[in-house]
Amino acid sequence: MSSMRYIWLMLAVLLVAFQQPGFQKIIEVPCEAYYLTTDNLGNAYVMTTGHDLNKYKPDGSYSTTQNFKANGSITSVDVSNTMQINVFYKPLNKVIILDNVLAFRGELLLRNLGITQATACARSFDNGLWVFDASDLLLKKIDKDLKQVTEQSPNVRLFVEKGKTLAPDFIFDDASRVYVNNPETGILVFDIFAQYIKTIPVKGLHHFQVIGNEIIYFRNNRLQRYNLRSSIQTALQLPDTTDLLDARLEKERLYLLKKNGLTLYAY
Predict the structure, then answer these.
(1) What CATH number does residue 130 fall under?
(2) How remote is the C-alpha of 201 from its chain's centroid?
């Protein structure tokens, strides 16, 4: 290796090390959970193997619980509006709506709106819902009153390479773009009127975060960061990877979901 190449390599290593935040453990919360999400206030939500949805405050203290045993395992929980939490059940083709203390506010049977095979669901920026309907391969937007479909995409198959599987399993709306995750081909990006823009070539995901200009996702015991402007990918080393199931960043907090509990760090 030439001396100049060695110098550049050392500078790159030092730069990555300098950018790594320092983590300070706040608390470990014992629980047997399989699902983690967080809201923009720093609250954490975990779904336990006993079908309890537990909410924890930013300091890790317990907040409240709701039990969903009768409905089975959840598919996703959208907490982007903490006053209207949407719990999606793919096998039941329905969404349960909760308030900020996880009290039941109602439910939406998607078949009543002509959506017969929803595979992914998320809140829209104006408090409606985005749903991908596999029965006709359309991304559909439901109005804030949850009464009717107001927008829908062209057939999404048009935007997926021939021969590839189309099976969207996660949606996120950041108020300017709608991100639809299709594990085999990447993240399909639409505008707020359900018109296709592009596909981001990050494959094999099942959920992710969009924070600022980055897509953040957990893979290989690291938090990976994809810059939406430059397409550069970087990785964030985590302080503990033992039995790690998932990780998220939110409001100067790092959340690690493990087989035996949830650990919170400040950074």
Answers:
(1) 2.120.10.30
(2) 17
Q: Where in the sequence is the domain holding 162, given as residue range(s)?
A: 23-266
pLDDT, one tens digit per residue, over 171-219 is 999 999 999 999 999 999 999 999 999 999 999 999 999 999 999 999 9
Residue at 77 is within a domain: yes
Q: Angle at CA 23, nearest 5°, toward 21 and 24?
A: 150
> Does residue 7 lie within any of the structural domains?
no
In this prediction the pTM is 0.90
Alpha carbons 142 and 128: distance in angstroms, whole number:
5
Q: Which of 3-17, 52-66, 240-254 has the lowest mean pLDDT?
A: 3-17
**HEC-encoded secondary structure of the chain:** CCHHHHHHHHHHHHHHHHHCCCCEEEEEEECCEEEEEECCCCCEEEEECCCEEEEECCCCCEEEEEECHHHCCCCEEECCCCCCEEEEECCCCEEEEECCCCCEEEEEEHHHHCCCCEEEEEECCCCCEEEEECCCCEEEEECCCCCCEEEECCCHHHHCCCCCCCCCCEEEECCCCEEEEECCCEEEEECCCCCEEEEECCCCCCCCEEECCEEEEEECCEEEEEECCCCCEEEEECCCCCCEEEEEEECCEEEEEECCEEEEEEC
Strands of 138-142's sheet, edge to edge? Answer: 118-123, 129-133, 138-142, 149-152
- The answer to whether residue 6 sits within a structural domain is no
Note whether residue 257 is domain-resident.
yes
